[in-house]
Amino acid sequence: YPSELLIQKITEDNQIPVHLHVSASLQYVAGLKGNALVEFFHGNIAEVENEELRHLMWSSVLFYKAPSVEAMACVLLSTKAIYFLLDDSFIRADECQSDFWNQENSDCGNSSFHLSRCFVLKLNDLQSVNVGLFDQYFRITGHSADHIVACLTRDSYNTHAFMQQLMAVLSLLARTPSPEPIDKDFYSEFGSKTTGKMENYELIHSSRVKFIYPNEEEIGDLAFLVAEKRDDLTDLQSLNILLYVLAFQVNRDEGAARNTSLLQPKTLILTSSDLFLFDEDYISYPLPEFAKEPPQRDKYQLADGRRIRDLDRVLMGYQTYPQALTFVFDDVQNQDLMQNLTLDHFGD
């Protein structure tokens, strides 16, 4: 260990997304290649001597205890734990959460010394993994509120690759098998007998970790919410969600505060008639078992919504992924003006 193939794969994955800026300490990590990267892991991050680094991924992360702060992290998966090497900016932005992070010895007089926080979730503490819609993100849940982290990959390929590696590593864990249920059929496994409602699709791994995937009802609930925002619940059957993607809205406001990021995380939903931007809560739903009360905000909050027929043009940048798109809409004061004129002039 490790094989040349694994070293090559980890080196290829060690690239910060070009549209996201990180601190000097993570820039240093991203500059490591080959054996230097593996040696860095064993010298600075690994907690036990015989653990193996299996996968590396760069992703935005959200913590359950700090749901409003999205930070960049280098996610390292080993045979013992999942390590989140966090950007320094997260610590500064989250000073109010002093009970969550131990702030002692965080200041170093030597400016050339870079200190990063590393959040560790041991695989033995892992209880469930919730995969988001269309594999745009996933949430890892441990045994307490301190051990819930959402990785916003915004990329189905990265999500899928991490899931495969995580399942492979979990297979190495020696856990006592849970007792086999008696006469377990499809309806008792996936449905609730009291309501008759289908629950989300669950895959229980041999390590007893649950992998929970969204089912069709989640899309139905989302379609209902979108129709509700349009004030058009009558035509729910014909409403199709064509696209759901985690994106960033570019903040071009010159007068915005300096600490406001240019890239604002948004959920983009495209239907056959409208384009919506939502502020989505990726970390609080579905509610963890130990949650005493529902979250303070709804899962989806409408940020902006425009009709496709008001779309004037779409401007596309020439750069490769991630692609920048600019949607230009006609600014009509009364959106139903044309419709009313048509009805008045031509009759019913």
Automatic annotation (TrEMBL):
<protein>
    <submittedName>
        <fullName>NISCH protein</fullName>
    </submittedName>
</protein>
<dbReference type="InterPro" id="IPR053015">
    <property type="entry name" value="PH_domain-containing_M2"/>
</dbReference>
<dbReference type="GO" id="GO:0010008">
    <property type="term" value="C:endosome membrane"/>
</dbReference>
<dbReference type="GO" id="GO:0032880">
    <property type="term" value="P:regulation of protein localization"/>
</dbReference>
<dbReference type="GO" id="GO:0019894">
    <property type="term" value="F:kinesin binding"/>
</dbReference>
<dbReference type="GO" id="GO:0032418">
    <property type="term" value="P:lysosome localization"/>
</dbReference>
<dbReference type="InterPro" id="IPR057288">
    <property type="entry name" value="PH_PLEKHM2"/>
</dbReference>
<dbReference type="InterPro" id="IPR057714">
    <property type="entry name" value="PH_NISCH_C"/>
</dbReference>
<dbReference type="Pfam" id="PF25625">
    <property type="entry name" value="PH_NISCH_C"/>
</dbReference>
<feature type="domain" description="Nischarin C-terminal PH">
    <location>
        <begin position="241"/>
        <end position="347"/>
    </location>
</feature>
<feature type="domain" description="PLEKHM2 PH">
    <location>
        <begin position="112"/>
        <end position="178"/>
    </location>
</feature>
<dbReference type="Pfam" id="PF23142">
    <property type="entry name" value="PH_PLEKHM2"/>
</dbReference>
<keyword id="KW-0963">Cytoplasm</keyword>
<dbReference type="GO" id="GO:0007030">
    <property type="term" value="P:Golgi organization"/>
</dbReference>
